[in-house]
Structures are given as C-alpha cells and as structure tokens.
Amino acid sequence: MIENIILFKYGGNAMTNQNLKSKILKIICSLKDKGYRVVIVHGGGPFIKETLKIANIESDFVDGLRKTTHEAMKYVEMALKGKVNGSLVSIINGMGYKAVGLSGKDGQTVLAIKHMHEHHENGKVELVDLGQVGDVASVDTSLIELLLKNDYIPVITCIASDSKGLDYNINGDLFAGHIAGALSAEQYVILTDVDGLMLDKDNPDSIIRKLKLDEINHLKEIKCIQGGMIPKIDSCKIALEKGAKLARIINGTAPEQIATLFENKENGTAISA
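The structure assignment produced for this chain is given below.
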C-alpha cells in the first residue's frame, strides 16, 4: 500500500477561472515537493453544459441530476476527457510535473453500474431511469498506484464503463470518494466554493470545523446538509468507510486554504470516522 496519498476532488467555479485554476494546481502539485503523492479527480458540469449547448442537445434534470442519453454521453465524454482533463494535464506538465490524464475506463480502474434514481413525491417513491448515469461498482487501484510509484500525478475524470463496456457518467464527488477510500488516502480534500459546511448556510461564522460520521444523519434531518452539499458529504462518508484516514471540505477559490492544509491550522470542515 502506498502511503501519503492526498486526493483532491476539483471542480465547479474554481475550474472556470483560468488564472485561479493555475494558482490552485500549482499549490496542489507543490505538495509533491513535501513528500506527498497527489491524485486529482475532477468533474466539469459547466463544460458539459456548454458542450451540449453547442451540440444543440437539451438536458433534462430530475432532482438536480442530469439525464444522459446515448447521444449526450458522447459529448459528456468529449467535455470531460477532451476539454477539462486535457487542460489540467497541460497546465500541470507546463509547471514541470508529470501528469497523466485518465478516466475510470482506463485500465478498468472503475467499474460502473447503472444508477436508478429514487424520486420522492407525495410520500411515494418512483424509480427514474436517467439513461447513462452510473454508480461506482468497484475500484481497481493498480494503474493509479503504478503511476504514483513512477512519480506521475494521475488526473482522473468521472466516466466509467460497466462489465459489458457501456459508458456511464458518474457524479464526480461520489466517484472521487470511492477512489479516495480504495487508495486509503491520507486525506481526501473536496475543493468547493464555500469555506466548509455551515450550521446556517447564510452565516459564515457558523462553520462546522470538525464532524464525525455519526453526526451526519442528524445534520441532514435538520436541513443543515442540503442541495449540492449532500453529495459532497456523502462522498466523504464513502471515502472514510472504505479506508481514507480523513476527509476535508475547503474553499477551492481561496488557494491559501490549500497551501495551509498541513500546517495544523483549522481549515474548512474536517470529517473523521
């Protein structure tokens, strides 16, 4: 087992600003100089939206989840693997590090399974077919570990195939959580656009600095964890239950938060088992 792995889930607004993107990647990659092995997992919602718009393919959403038809899937992969992944790899290589771009399909690193969404309405549960939207069935870390041992930075996007070779788009947060757990990451760090989990989302001073897994259900019940924070917290839970040592949600639009991750400063929301 490889030690000192830090896995970053990178996405959202911190990805659309080119100047900010370079700053963030420089700080992330500099952790290699401190003896850490870095893995980056990314999604790219804004880029998928833009690519589908250019292709004149409309997106339907169910409970915030994008339906992905066979036709749309080609453009989702084009956006994530071609545009976003290629850009991240180019920037990192330009800084003098060695990045390798992957999706879950490469080396069968991630095996997918079709996701059937449960839609709740008026006390009833309806199963909704979202097309080529998947869940993680299993993770094989051998390719990632081979790259890490040879001083590469794996940059992985959230697409994977099932056992029959059908491709699926997987929620980037949940995808990253599974990989962080499988790698027994020292830290799993989600970069988002807020400073962490707030007890009151409208009050920055109500940030929860430390959270235990057994407190999560209560925070969901009182609607402290809601919206886009749900998959982020769920992915931290997956990561910790599957082997990661610590999970953290920090503000990716504030690069200094990443820089001080290992200086014993309170940063974002730290989640532990």
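Interim note for the steering committee: The two ends are 20 Å apart (CA to CA). The mean pLDDT is 92.
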